[in-house]
Amino acid sequence: MTEAATPLESALDVAALILILIGALLCLTAAIGLLRFRDVPSRLHAATKPQVLGLILVCLAIALSLRSWPVVAFLVPVVLIQLATAPLSAHMVGRQAYRNGTIDENGLYVDELAESHRTPPAAGG
Question: Any stretches that span the bilayer, and where are they (predicted)?
Fold first, then answer.
C-alpha cells in the first residue's frame, strides 16, 4: 500500500516540474541561438548564459525531486565545474576567433587587444 503524498511533497514535485521545464527551454534557446546567430560573440553568449542557467535549474529540479543529500552532494560539483569552465572556454574561443580575424573588429566598442594584434606574440616588442 502506498502512502498519500503530503501537500509539501506535492508542492516540491510541482516546483521541480516547473524548474525542469524552464531549464529545458533555456537549454533549447541556447541551442537555437548557436544555430541562428551569425557572429562569434553572439554565439558565445548563447552558448554560455542560458545554457548554464538551464543546467542550474535542471540540477535544482533533480535535487528537489529526489530529496536526497547524496544527490545534492553529486550535483553541487557538477554545477561548480560548469560555472568554472563555461566562461573559460568562451574566453578561449573568443580569443582564438579574434586572432583568426573572424570577429568583426568594426563592431567592437573597445578593442583592448588591438596592440597585441599588431605585434606577433613571439616578436618581442
Answer: 14-35, 47-66, 72-90
Q: How many CB atoms lie within 10 A of CB 24?
A: 14
CB 81 within 8 A of CB 116: no
Give the integer Cα–Cα distance in Å for 62 and 68.
10
Cα(76)–Cα(1) distance, rounded to whole angstroms?
35
CA-nearest of 53, 62, 58 to 12 is 62
What letter would DSSP give residue 125?
-
Q: Is the dihedral of CA 80, 91, 24, 17 positive or negative?
A: positive
Whole-number Å distance between alpha carbons of 66 and 91 = 35
Summarize the confidence of residues 85-93 as an average pLDDT: 90
Q: Domain limits of the chain?
A: 7-118
Instruction: Look up the pTM and report it.
Output: 0.80
Per-residue model confidence (pLDDT) at position 122 = 62
